[in-house]
Design brief:
Number of helices: 14
Transmembrane segments: 81-98, 110-132
Domain Endonuclease/exonuclease/phosphatase: 201-456
Strand order of the largest sheet: 6-7-5-4-16-15
CATH class of the largest domain: Alpha Beta
Strand content: 15-25%
Largest sheet: 6 strands, mixed
Helix content: 40-55%
CATH superfamily of the largest domain: Endonuclease/exonuclease/phosphatase
Number of strands: 16
Structural class: alpha+beta
CATH topology of the largest domain: Deoxyribonuclease I, Chain A
Distance between the termini: 63 Å
CATH architecture of the largest domain: 4-Layer Sandwich
Protein name: Endonuclease/exonuclease/phosphatase domain-containing protein
GO molecular function: catalytic activity
Region (Disordered): 1-45
Order of helices and strands: EHHEHHHHHEHEHEHEEEEEHHEHEHEEEE
């Protein structure tokens, strides 16, 4: 790279006579003092002055002066370094996205690579802005990369402002009761699905409050919800009540026949008083088939499904059958306190980090296997599929990536913002999801952040099935 400046006032930028001017005048003096014939008088002096000044001026105009080499090197090195950073950032982005497709059982460190996708996307966007101010041709590299990776941007940060705003306005105008949905209300033929991890309705002594206020409030809120289908994780039910709790936790009765719904409880554990723990689906449409999907030995972490027969209705000219999956993938088993300690103090990092890493790895390996099990059932479904549940994993992970490859995520398709569903000391985590099969049109999705009775916020989606 060569940067040059023309010089008009002599050989150097300071305005002093250049080397050529001095040499010409020196040669004139030599000739005047030599042994040859010399011109005398004023005329001779004018001729010498004319040759001296004219020669120096022409030489100055003909000869450019280069910018000092250190400055040139500094500019070249700086731009070359920024370009190398751009190439490295693009390579990082490609590798991070590739890590999302690697199951933890194959190579578990890929989990950490996938978690860096947001950082790679952010750096790529920053580099696009940087080069846009300096070289638009180079800016095309990160800009095109962002365009190709836009679905990955929407995974973590949904940017559907117009649709979300319209849904919010209509919901505000039409839902003035205790359960505002902020979703379009009057959509003929649409299906409203509400999913929530209910944290066993706070039945344990460490979770309950006086007079079971939060437990009663949560069950009542779900019973009065306008949702057609409820998918609940960490469900708790006392079929006959109990001496200690009375009739508070007869939740299957309240959410099923008590609210005009059909119910199926997939029980993974029954305790000594006959209380049931597991997953549950409640539907306003008849349940014609149902099943449980264990992940090895049946435990709190498993999946279930139901086939729902929907009759013809306005906006749905013919009866149909749909399949709804409800799942609860393996927990990370990471205590919030341990994470906070490991990230704030050296002693906490030394004492807690090895155990946290081991549990994180084991959870990731288990969720990858569970994802493959459920996805195989989804692909074999003879009916249009809706799927909801507690994934215990982020949008930049193997489970999310696999489901997103076959289904459409409701929040990524219609939401606005992060859509965080975890209600705890670790903000911004969206670990509860709803997915829809190819025939479904996603009309809206909302996270109920006003419901504070669990460590998960309920998620509500609105769907309409396209005709065959």
């Amino acid at each position: 790279m060569a940067l040059v400046f023309d010089e008009f006032e002599g050989g150097r930028s300071g305005g002093r006579p250049g080397r050529h001017g001095r040499a010409r005048r020196g040669g004139q003096r030599d000739r005047s003092q030599g042994s040859g014939p010399q011109q005398q008088g004023p005329a001779a002096h004018k001729v010498a002055l004319f040759h001296s000044e004219g020669g120096a001026g022409r030489a100055a105009r003909r000869r450019p002066t280069k910018v000092p080499l250190p400055l040139v090197k500094k500019i070249v090195v700086r731009r070359s370094f920024a370009f190398k950073i751009t190439l490295l950032a693009l390579a990082w982005l490609v590798l991070a996205i590739a890590c999302e497709r690697v199951p933890a059982g194959t190579w578990w460190p890929a989990v950490f690579g996938a978690l860096t996708v947001p950082g790679a996307l952010l750096l790529t966007a920053a580099l696009a802005l940087y080069w846009l101010r300096r070289n638009w041709r180079v800016a095309l590299l990160p800009a095109v990369a962002l365009a190709l990776c836009w679905p990955h941007v929407q995974r973590g940060l949904a940017l559907h402002w117009a649709g979300a705003r319209a849904n919010f306005d209509q919901g505000t105008a039409t839902n003035q009761g205790p359960n505002p949905s902020f979703l379009p209300e009057a959509v003929p033929g649409a299906l409203r699905l509400l999913s929530a991890n209910v944290r066993i309705f706070n039945v344990y002594a460490a979770l309950r409050d006086p007079d079971f206020a939060s437990s009663k409030g949560f069950i009542t809120w779900l019973a009065e919800s306008p949702a057609d289908v409820l998918c609940l994780q960490e469900f708790y039910n006392e079929p006959r009540g109990s001496r200690e709790n009375g009739q508070v936790f007869r939740s299957a009765e309240r959410l099923g026949p008590g609210s005009g719904r059909h119910g199926f409880v997939s029980t993974s554990l029954t305790n000594r008083i006959g209380a049931e723990f597991g997953l549950a689906i409640f539907s306003r449409f008849p349940i014609v088939r149902r099943g449980t999907i264990p992940f090895g030995k049946l435990s709190q972490n498993h999946a279930m499904w139901v086939d729902l027969a929907r009759p013809a209705a306005p906006g749905r000219p013919a009866a149909d059958t749909i399949r709804v999956f409800n799942l609860h993938l393996q927990s990370m088993s990471l205590a919030e306190g341990d994470i906070v300690d490991a990230s704030t103090t050296k002693a906490g990092l030394r004492d807690k980090a090895p155990g946290l890493l081991r549990r994180f790895r084991n959870g990731a390996v288990a969720r990858a296997r569970q994802t493959d099990t459920v996805l195989a059932r989804v692909r074999r479904s003879p009916y249009p599929v809706l799927l909801a549940g507690d994934f215990n994993d982020l949008p930049y992970s193997y489970p999310y990536d696999q489901f997103a490859g076959a289904l459409t995520n409701a929040w990524a398709a219609t939401g606005l913002g992060l859509g965080a569903t975890y209600h705890g000391r670790l903000p911004g985590l969206r670990i509860d999801q709803q997915f829809a099969g190819p025939r479904w049109q996603v009309l809206g999705c909302r996270v109920h952040r006003e419901i504070l009775w669990s460590d998960h916020f309920p998620v509500e989606g609105l769907y309409r099935l396209a005709p065959k």
